[in-house]
Amino acid sequence: MARALVGLAIFCATLGACEEEPELPPHKPDQATSLPTVGPQCAVTFRADRSITLGQLVLVLQRDPLDSNSLGFSLTTLRPGADGSRMIFGTFVRADSVAGLTKSEIHLTSSSFLNPRGNGIFTAAAAYQPKLVTLRITSITEGEAAGTFSGDFYRFPTSRPAVRPEVIQANGTFTAALMMR
């Protein structure tokens, strides 16, 4: 072992590799990694067994490279709230344009097993995952989208996430900053 360390030290001294640290290229902020500016009006209000309001909501639409009539759809909070509450709804949508989203319904589903990384609204008290939820985008303007959602949700108590979930009816309204990728 000692012989190997001496050999490594001689090698480094001969080449000078241990004296200099490699220079990293300067970091250039990438447009894809920068977060949008989201105003206080970009929020979701969820009404179920209790009313929940979450801020910093963004709608990200991305063209599917394999299908020109399909968009990747993500409605999500940029950061969790002070109590850790967050929301994410994501799916692929059949639409030939962004304006076409206002003419269609988006259906969200999940299983009756809690998936903390899946679709849903997650709070300190409960997690709400869509059993069968219909989401409608009512308007799209420059940089902003608004809409509603309603349907059946699985309600998982956070204190006992492995128990069988209760099915409840819930609805909500949202206004979100719009991002196209």
What key attributes describe this structure?
181 residues, 10 strands, globular
Instruction: Determine the number of helices (DSSP H or I, runs of at least 4 residues).
Output: 1
Helix/sheet category? mainly beta
Catalogue the unreliable spans.
none
Separation, N- and C-terminal Cα atoms: 54 Å
Rg calculated over all Cα atoms: 23 Å
> What's the β-strand tally?
10
Q: How much is the average pLDDT?
A: 84
Give the SSE order as H and E letters: HEEEEEEEEEE
For the largest sheet, list the strands in their spatial order: 3-4-5-7-8-9-10
User: Which shape, going by the Cα principal axes?
Assistant: globular
How many separate domains make up the residues? 1
- The helical percent reads under 10%
Strand fraction = over 45%
**Biggest pleated-sheet summary:** 7 strands, mixed, barrel
Description:
8% of the residues lie in helices and 50% in strands. The protein has 181 residues and is mostly beta strands. It has one domain (40-180). The mean pLDDT is 84.
